[in-house]
Design a protein that fits this description.
The protein has about 325 residues and is α/β, with parallel strands linked by helices. Helix content is about 35%, strand content about 15%. The protein is elongated and about 60 Å long.
Length: about 325
């Protein structure tokens, strides 16, 4: 079995090569400030405090603060798209705008971009350079943060045909012919590293790590082939979706729940391993630690013992003297 990441990446690349696709106008990476429309609204994926202090914006536009943490719960659980649409309305987005997503961390930036595109945002541009590279055409102003009440109603329909649910993926795998791409690092794919109770990858999946997609020659799919993408969870899956669809200029679907949800449901895995059991075996065979007993006596304890002994001796003597006196009487 081939486990070399480069060979696996090459294999997936061969399967994806085919008829060329044009860069999608509504979802793409940009690196030239001149290619950003004058009316584009900046969406800052950094944390809300940083965005509120200062975010880039074109004249007569106001940047919007949309950190990925605002739409995720414990363990990266993604909010419902109904709640996400409400949140986007609280920062003043109605979905008809052309947005330019910027950020300091690639994964968070790409996750927000993927979220907006799946959520129905009309046009999503992803700035793939540092924020300060936007140039003099952008001023730094206070970003608009979320408020309890909506400032706009997000009206655009979500692109739910791009999202694959768990039961759908089970059916697709049973029918066969699915090109399933795992965006996690190769160590996770082969079960060598995990943060859960089960490791490995979904049945028939191929390893094409998200990191391998950044900055490489675009890969396009053969006609009629739409891969299904997944990461560890929703945030990784959203970022991977952006890297493939916007970065590689080709259509794809995404299983947002990702490996963590599939494994937790007890569904079949390839290259399955159980790191927790291996750790338990190591712990069971490890020798028990020995308790070290000091051979040197504790001087304070010896002194206390001597004092107690003297008191007990004195008490015994007094008791004996009292008995003798009663007998003489």
């Amino acid at each position: 079995m081939l486990k070399t990441p480069a060979l696996l990446i090459g294999l997936a690349g061969v399967l994806l090569v085919g008829a060329g696709n044009e860069v999608p106008a509504d979802f793409r990476f940009v690196s030239d400030p001149a290619s950003v429309p004058a009316d584009a609204v900046v969406v800052d994926s950094r944390n809300a405090e940083t965005c509120a202090e200062g975010a880039p914006a074109r004249e007569e536009t106001e940047p919007r603060c949309v950190p990925i943490a605002a739409v995720t719960g414990p363990h990266g659980r993604l909010a419902s798209f109904r709640d996400i649409a409400w949140f986007l309305g609280t920062v003043g987005l109605d979905g008809s705008e052309t947005v330019l997503v910027v950020g300091a961390r690639e994964r968070d930036r790409d996750a927000v971009a993927g979220l907006l595109h799946l959520g129905g945002q009309k046009t999503v541009l992803v700035w793939q350079r540092p924020i300060n590279a936007l140039g003099e055409g952008f001023a730094t102003v206070s970003g608009r943060v979320s408020e309890p009440a909506r400032r706009a109603v997000f009206r655009e329909p979500m692109r739910d045909d791009r999202i694959v649910l768990k039961n759908e993926l089970q059916r697709m795998l049973a029918e066969g012919g699915v090109l399933l791409l795992d965006g996690r690092p190769a160590e996770d794919f082969w079960g060598e590293r995990t943060t859960g109770e089960r490791a490995g990858h979904l049945p028939g999946a191929q390893s094409l790590p998200a990191r391998a997609l950044r900055g490489a020659t675009p890969i396009v799919a053969a006609d009629g082939v739409e891969p299904v993408l997944y990461g560890r969870g929703a945030v990784d899956g959203l970022a991977y979706y952006t890297a493939v669809v916007a970065g590689r200029s080709r259509p794809a679907k995404v299983y947002l729940e990702g490996f963590a949800d599939w494994a937790a449901a007890g569904l079949p895995l390839d290259a399955e391993s159980h790191p927790d059991l291996a750790a338990a075996d190591v712990a069971a065979t490890a020798p028990a630690p020995r308790t070290q007993i000091s051979a040197a006596p504790d001087r304070k304890l010896l002194a206390l013992s001597a004092s107690v002994g003297a008191l007990l001796g004195a008490a015994a003597a007094v008791g004996t003297l009292a008995v003798i006196r009663r007998r003489k009487a």
